[in-house]
Amino acid sequence: MAPPPRRIVRKKPLSxxxxxxxxxxDFLLWLSEEMETREYDPETLGLKLGLAMHVVFLLARSNSxxxxxxxxxxxxxxxxxxxxxxxxxxxxxxxxxxVNAYYTTTRVRLxxxxxxxxxxxxxxKSAKRVNVQSTPSAASPIRLFKxxxxxxxxxxxxxxxxxxxxxxxxxxxxxxxxxxxxCIFSPAHAxxxxxFLPISRDDPQPSITVLNCLxxxxxxxxxxxxxxxxxxQQAKDTALVNREVMNEYNTKFVHPRLHPTxxxxxxxxxxxxxxxxxxxxxxxxxx
Length: 287
Prior knowledge:
The protein has nine helices and five strands. It is mainly alpha-helical and 287 residues long. The longest helix is centred in the C-terminal third of the chain and has 53 residues. The protein starts with 13 loop residues before the first helix and ends with a strand. This is Meiotically up-regulated protein 154.
């Protein structure tokens, strides 16, 4: 009896497996799907995350100072493992708030104006001419890295063609969660912490310094939240006004012309009625 055929499984090379493990695109794809598809309250979650980042950053920055030695013949100071860990945590949070602020300000939703005249330039900086057959890029963290790493092609440098170009409008469309975190813990907040903390031993009033830092952070957060709330309310009011204008236009002009008011008119004749024709003969008139 012949032995059964042996299965041959091709294994990936070590370089491909390492590149697949170190590739951040899978993590960014999962993160973008979680942020855009999961059902959550962005205001509450953003407030909790922002306050948690404030507490962690405050504690880490306070413990990131090296131990000073007052001895004349000392080494000048030593850093413990807690100080190294605190510094790493501080710069991780700084990098995180920078990435979140950049993603919040650059996330857009793309619209293409197919009926707009290609020779008439829109009165906005968000519009640009693109090829009508090109695929719009998705608004996700992956788009930022792809746009930064993608080299310029010959088609991008080619002269624009009126027959193949269309105007593309990039409308700012931040995620509510990212916007709330950017208002509560922005790069400006991190800069304030880096300026005031850690407290020097020569500071005569360390508690006043910490209080001033916290008050400044609170005022900055409230100001950003107030601006964000006013802008959101303005967008809602503008949408309401536009909707009511279209409703009034439909009520006054469109509907009367589509459904005009008419009056039913009909004639009726008696079947027994007779009239005289031109020759004087009786003619029956009826149905």
